[in-house]
Amino acid sequence: MKLPIFLDNHSTSPMDPRVLEAMLPYFVEKFGNAASRNHAFGWAAEEAVENARKQIAKLIKADSKEIVFTSGATESDNLAIKGVLEMYKEKGDHIITSSTEHRAVIDTAKALEAKGKATATYLPVDKYGMVNPEDVRKAITDKTVLISVMLANNEIGTINPVKEIGKIAKEKGILFHCDATQGVGKIPVDVQDMGIDLMSFSAHKIYGPKGVGALYVRKKNPRVRLAAQMDGGGHERGMRSGTLPVPLIVGFGKACELCEQEMATESVRLAAMRDRLQAGIMKEIDEAYLNGHATQRLPHNLNISFAYVEGESLLMGMKDIALSSGSACTSATLEPSYVLRALGVGVELAHSSIRFGLGRFNTDEEIDYTIKKVIEIVTKLREMSPLYEMAKEGVDLKSVQWAAH
Amino acid sequence: MAYSDKVVDHFNNPRNMGSFKKDEEGVGTGMVGAPECGDVMKLQIKVQNDTIVDAKFKTFGCGSAIASSSLATEWLKGKTIEEAQKIKNTDIVQELNLPPVKIHCSVLAEDAIKAALADYQKKADTK
Fold it and tell me: Which ipTM did the prediction report?
C-alpha cells in the first residue's frame, strides 16, 4: 500500500490512465483547431471532438448537439444561470435555488442579485440535506424563470429528488438547471427522465482531466436559449466562444465512456467499501454522527461528525490520508460548513466533521488502514479534549456559559 | 497550508496533557474559548510558594491551538506568578511560527494563562 491515501474524490479525482492514453495523440500529432474547416489537421480535431461529444451525451442520455463545452462546472453554472436570466429577462428575474448548492451556483445568484439583475429564493433543506419538491412549487412566482437545484451534494452526498422537481418545472413552464457535477458518472443520470433543461458537470471529478466541463443545453421541448457570457468566434452554437481544448475534450469523452461502461459495478463496489468504512468507524467510536442521508446518497460519500474533536486537528492527525473537513479552520472564511449548518447540524458538530470521498482506485487495504487511523486519532484527541472530559463528567455542554471570542 | 515543525511536534507529542483536580490546593484553572468557535482551551497551573511547579492543558481545537496550549504549559513551569503574567501571545506566534490565520490560537493561549492565574489568585485571596 502506498501512502498518502487519496480519499478526497469529491474535490477531484486522479486521471484514469486509459483517459490519458486517449488524450496523448492530441497534443503533438493531432494538434489541429477543431474550428479549422479547410485542412486535415482541423478535420481530425473536429472528428475527435464530435466523438467525445457523443460519448458524453450518451452517459446522460442527451443528444450530442446539446453538449456545450466549458472550462469546468463553475463556468457551466455561471453560463446557465447568467445566460438564462439575461436571455429571459423580459419574462422575469426570479430564480429558485437551494441553500446547499455549490458556491458556483449560490454566489452566481448572489452576484446577480447584487447587480439588481435577479431576485433569488434559497430553499431550505431537510435534516438530511434534501430539497422538498413542494417547496419548489410554492416558491414559484409569475416572475420565476429558472429553478437551479443540484443533483447530489458535494459535502454530504445527499441525492435530491430531481425528477420530481423536473416535473414541477415542466408543469409550470420554467427552465430547470441542475448542477450534477458530483452525480454524473457516479449514479445514473437521464436528462429526459429527470426533466432537466440545463445541466453542469465536469471531467476531473470522473477521472478525466482538469480544465474542461460541459453544460447540457436542451434543444427541444423546450429549446433553451442562452445569452453568451463569452463573446468571440461563436463556437458551441454561439453559446461559448473560444477554441476548444481538444485533448481535454477527448479525455472528457473517454472518461464518460468508461463511467458509462463501469458505473454499475463500480458504484456497488464503492458503496460496499464505504459501508465498511462507516461500520468500522461507528463500531468503535461513540458519538460519531452521520451527516446526510443514510440511503439517498452518493455511493462513494461518507460524512461524519466526531463530537468533542475539531476537524482540522483530525486531518492533521491523519496526515497520510487526504480528506476534507467542514471545520472553519480548513476554510478561508473561518465559518464552518454552510451545508452542514443548513441541515441543522450544530456549529460545534460542523467543526467536527470529516468528509470521506472514495474513488475508482481505492483498495480494501486502504479502507482498513483508514478505519484504524480514524479510531486512533479520534481516541487520542478526545483524551486531549476538555469538552470530552466535561461530557464524561456529566456536564451538559449546552448549559455552560462560554466566553465566545 | 503547511504546519511548522514545532506545531507538528507539539501536536504529535503534546507536553503536559491532562488535568489536575480543580479544588486541589494551589491549583488555578483557566477555561477559554467556545465550542461554536471551534476551540476551547483548559489550562491549569499548580503553584507552590509563588512559583508554578506544574502545568497541564486540555484543548479542543486545531493543531495550532493544541500546540499553543502545549507550549504554554512548558513555558509556565518554573516561572513565578509575576513572570507568568508577562507571557505574550506574540511570543507564542514567534516560537511556533504561526501564520496570520492562526494568531487567534496564540491569543486564546494567552487568555487561558491569564484566566488560570486569575483563578489561582482568587482562590488564594478567599482563603
Answer: 0.94
